[in-house]
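hiii, so i know i said id send this last week but things got crazy w the move. better late than never?? heres the sequnce for the chain we talked about at the cafe, plus the structure i predicted for it. fair warning i was half asleep when i ran it
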Amino acid sequence: MELMMRNMFQSLGKSRTANRLAKRYGLRFGAARFVAGETIQQSINAVRGLNQDGRVATLDHLGEFVFSEAEALESADMCIQTLDAIAESGVTSNLSLKMTSLGLDISRDLCVSSMRRILDRARMHGNFVRIDMEDYAHCQVSLDIYRELRKDYDNVGIVIQAYLFRTMKDMDDLHELGANLRLVKGAYKESPQVAFPEKSDVDENYKKMIQKHLLNGHYTAVASHDEAIISFTKDFAKTNGISGSQFEFQMLYGICEELQKQLVKEGYRVRIYVPYGVDWFGYFMRRLAERPANVWFVLKNMFK
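okay and structure toks below
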C-alpha cells in the first residue's frame, strides 16, 4: 500500500495537468506546511523566523515545469531577485536551484549562461548557491556543468544522492575540486539498474558518503531527518576529531522542527531548505511520496 501511494504521488508530481490545477487552487490542503509561500516576501519572512531561533536557510524558488526560453529566463531572474532580497533583508540564507528551471532541457548554453549570471550576483553579495540534483537522466550533465562552473566560481556546491550506484565514484571525481556537497538519500523514482532498491543499502551507502567526504576534509551538508544518520554523523565527527565548522545538518521546511531546534541547542549548524513560488506542486508531491505521515496530515487539513 505504501509503495503504491509513493508511486502515485511521484507520478502526479510529473503531471502538467495536475500542476496547472494546483496553481489554480493555491497552497491549500496542507501544502503550506512544506512551502513557505508563493512570493519572495513570504519566503523572507519565513527565513527571518528561522534565523530568530538560530537556524539558517537556503531559499529555493520552485520551478520544475519550464517549457520555453522565456520561462527559463524568468526563473533565472527570480533567482537573482531572491539573492537581492536576502541581501537587502539581512536574513541568513543561501540560494538553492534546479537547473531544469533554468532551461537545461531546452538549451545547455542557456542554462549555463543563467547560472553564471546568478553566481555573479551571489558573489557580489558574498552568498553561496547550491545546485540541486534531479533525476538520474540529469545527473551526468549536472555534474559536468558543476565542474565547468567551478573553474570560475568557488561559491557553488552541488547535491549527491545516496541511492545511486554511481555516487561513490562521482565523489572520487569531485574530490580534486574540494566540492562543497549536500549529501541526500534521494527522492526520485529510479530504476533498480541505477539505484539501490532497498532502504538498508541506501542507508549504508549514505554513511560511507558521510565518512568519505568528512575524512577528505571538505565541507559536508548532511541532509536527512533520519535520527540514526544524524547520530552516526555526530559520533563519527567526534571520534575523528572533525570540527563542527566542517559540516552542517540540513532539513526541510516544516518537517521535524523539534529535532531541528534540538540540534541548534547542541551547538550544531542547522540549515533549513525553504521552498517558495507558484510552481510548488512537484515538490509537494515528492514530500507526500516520502512519508505516509505527510499524507495523513494533508487529509486531515482537507476535512477541517
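btw DSSP finds twelve helices and eight strands in the chain. thought thatd interest u
miss u guys!!
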